[in-house]
Amino acid sequence: MTNSFDKAKLANALSSHTLKSATRFQYGTAGFRMEASLLDPVMFAVGLLAVLRSKYHKGKTIGVMVTASHNPEKDNGVKLVEPLGEMLVQSWEGYATELANATSSADAITSALESIIAKEKIDLSQPARVVVARDTRPSGKALVASLVDGVQCLGGEIKDFGLFTTPQLHYVVRCINTAGTEDAYGEPTEEAYYEKLAAAFKKITAGYPRLSPLLIDGANGIGAPAMEKLGKYLGDSFAYQLVNNDVVSSGKLNHESGADFVKIKQTKPLGMDLKYGQRACSLDGDADRIVFYFTEEDGTFRLLDGDKIATLAADFIMDLAKQANILVQREDGSKTPLHIGLVQTAYANGSSTAYVKDTLQVPVVFTPTGVKHLHHAAEEFDVGVYFEANGHGTVLFSPAAIKAFKTSVGATPAAEKAIDALRALTELINQAVGDALSDMLLVEATLTYQQKSFAKWNSDYTDLPSRQEKVKVANRANFVPIKADTELSHPIGLQEKINEQVAKFSKGRCFVRPSGTEDIVRVYAEAATREETDRLCYLVCGLVFDGYGGVGTRPTTFLP
Ligand code: 16G
Ligand code: MG
């Protein structure tokens, strides 16, 4: 057991990355995220922490993704990925914050490191392996160089995969750490990723007529070139047309485009000519989110968001499992049907929750916002379908479910076909993290198998009108969410006032929560009609702004 490191080497390496401003950093929902120009010391600190995390896992490979997702191009960010491709364990988020803030001096960083090493009993004689990738942001390359300095000064090995989508980085991390085990996830290369997805998609859709071409909005980010490469592997099995694929011109990334823009504004992105009868989708800046949409004949925009993707997927998998008569081996020796569950957040449309419970008859679990919470809850099922309304999500298969698919033999040709489709779905769906490209193929494979149009898919249930607004407040930490973000315990008294307003509206629902990624609080409202929804949202924004520290302009701009 070694617990000492070369302090002079650390001090020397830090001297090129010292924090000079008064900025305070915090590892939040999506890692560190801020203006790229502030991130250099953070990257160095993350390099150090990645080495410690790898040593803690006895040399397993840790991933680092450099991206700010749907944020503007001037921003960047960084997050750490655990050996099986999950998000960094929550108990280490505090260490990330401590280390980043300790980059102001050699003494501070030395003692921060020593304290983590002691607390986690890390043996520094263990090897450390780190892999890194970045999205297309111009600031990414220099930030990776700062990370490399951090990794190398503690003697870690680093491999730079260059430009990747976020889910591709999660994929290679999982592949590397499972190689040679019975859970081997694949070859840790970009090509193998495309090959795996394309082969699974072809298996499910073989023999069915191809759907009309899908318009894909690449948000002028990394999803665009990745889609072009994936398209080559898919060949004739999939027809698409890519727009917003300019990753060269500056200022275009996520600009009035991408999944976040389309979801929030409920409109098509800039740069897309969406005609009646066409089907479209938008990826976000790092391709871990996707939403679908189309227009009605009268031009009405229809969004098929994460809730709709979740219900489509759950329904399809349940159907296949029924046809295949899948039984899962339990620890007590019994065999029982597949246990499917759906995980949502407070942002899920009330109609989707009712549809899942009443029509699909699938249990629903609610968690706070943030993928790590949903992912964790989904692991409790044989098939755990989790999606945030914003289009981030995936479907997790338990080892017992995968085993059941592998060993089941169909009693009829139809049952055999359903089993084949289930097996292919476990290959098609990214098990590490929500993945826009994988989710896109999941939706397209389902719709092809069912020969279902977007309009038919959309008619499964009708969304209640909803509205989301931001309110700028002096201190968002005063707002403390409870009950999976559906209520606030603080500021004292605000929740009662919200409840009073909600009670006035038919099918009214409204909640306020502090954002984990922006310095604002979010207000979400839904009600029976568009007018009522907007009114409820406005009233609650006003409550927050007037009584609980609103700053800047009072949010009234969206009043009808
Ligand atoms: C991050 C989360 C996402 C969540 C969003 C909430 C990941 C990979 N992403 O983007 O799950 O919905 O934050 O943002 O964890 P907010 O706290 O600003 O509303
Ligand atoms: Mg993203």
Tell me the layout of helices and strands.
Layout: H1 7-14, E1 32-35, H2 40-56, E2 61-66, E3 75-81, H3 93-101, H4 106-119, E4 129-134, H5 140-153, E5 157-163, H6 166-178, H7 190-205, E6 214-217, H8 223-234, E7 240-243, H9 258-265, E8 279-283, E9 290-295, E10 301-304, H10 306-324, E11 327-329, E12 335-337, E13 340-344, H11 350-360, E14 364-366, H12 371-378, E15 383-387, E16 393-397, H13 399-407, H14 413-428, H15 436-450, H16 454-458, E17 466-471, E18 480-482, E19 487-490, H17 494-502, E20 509-514, E21 521-526, H18 530-547
Parallel strand pairs: 2-4, 4-5, 6-7, 6-8, 13-14, 13-15
Antiparallel strand pairs: 1-3, 2-3, 8-9, 9-10, 11-12, 15-16, 17-21, 18-19, 20-21
Helix pairs in contact: 1-4, 2-3, 2-5, 3-4, 7-8, 7-14, 7-15, 10-11, 10-14, 10-15, 17-18
The structure holds 2-acetamido-2-deoxy-6-O-phosphono-alpha-D-glucopyranose (16G) and magnesium ion (MG).
Q: CATH top level of the largest domain?
A: Alpha Beta
Tally of contiguous helical segments: 18
Question: Strand percentage, roughly?
Answer: 15-25%
Task: State the low-pLDDT regions, or none.
Answer: none
Strand order of the largest sheet: 1-3-2-4-5
What's the helical proportion of residues? 25-40%
CATH homologous superfamily identity of the largest domain: Alpha-D-Glucose-1,6-Bisphosphate, subunit A, domain 3
Structural class: alpha/beta
Shape: globular
Q: Which sheet architecture does the biggest sheet show? A: 5 strands, mixed
Ligand kinds: 2-acetamido-2-deoxy-6-O-phosphono-alpha-D-glucopyranose, magnesium ion
By DSSP, the count of extended strands is: 21
Average residue pLDDT: 96
